[in-house]
């Protein structure tokens, strides 16, 4: 467990999370698919979620990517995900992607969760630069970045192409330790 708060806790993704992960992503598909299309596509069915978790657990063992669940404490249901990806061990750099279910948004959980995951990334993994890449229209994600101590660095031109859309400019936020 990397964080244990009053309302939620954060832990590494486990096989036992398949059902709750699938429910979270299926029930939030419409609001998450624009910016997390690969994660949504990989979790359409319960069997897909089991395969996704197995693959991500292999990635965690290889230290190529880390996936954490944000869990509601009373129910132990998966309320959100934090993915630490695009790891560059030479540069000691990684990028966060994250999401939270509709019924849990607006509580400040993701801000706390990103701070906790940042502490894990720097203290346990030795990373020095953490990034969040968000579209300016995704106000919630931009606010999480800013409120978690990440600073805007630059606009990345045409770097993300959502399904059935033209390429989008994305905003790069960084936290340097």
UniProtKB/TrEMBL annotation:
<dbReference type="InterPro" id="IPR051531">
    <property type="entry name" value="N-acetyltransferase"/>
</dbReference>
<feature type="domain" description="N-acetyltransferase">
    <location>
        <begin position="12"/>
        <end position="151"/>
    </location>
</feature>
<comment type="similarity">
    <text>Belongs to the acetyltransferase family. RimJ subfamily.</text>
</comment>
<keyword id="KW-0012">Acyltransferase</keyword>
<protein>
    <submittedName>
        <fullName>GNAT family N-acetyltransferase</fullName>
        <ecNumber>2.3.-.-</ecNumber>
    </submittedName>
</protein>
<dbReference type="GO" id="GO:0016746">
    <property type="term" value="F:acyltransferase activity"/>
</dbReference>
<keyword id="KW-0808">Transferase</keyword>
<dbReference type="InterPro" id="IPR016181">
    <property type="entry name" value="Acyl_CoA_acyltransferase"/>
</dbReference>
<dbReference type="InterPro" id="IPR000182">
    <property type="entry name" value="GNAT_dom"/>
</dbReference>
<dbReference type="Pfam" id="PF13302">
    <property type="entry name" value="Acetyltransf_3"/>
</dbReference>
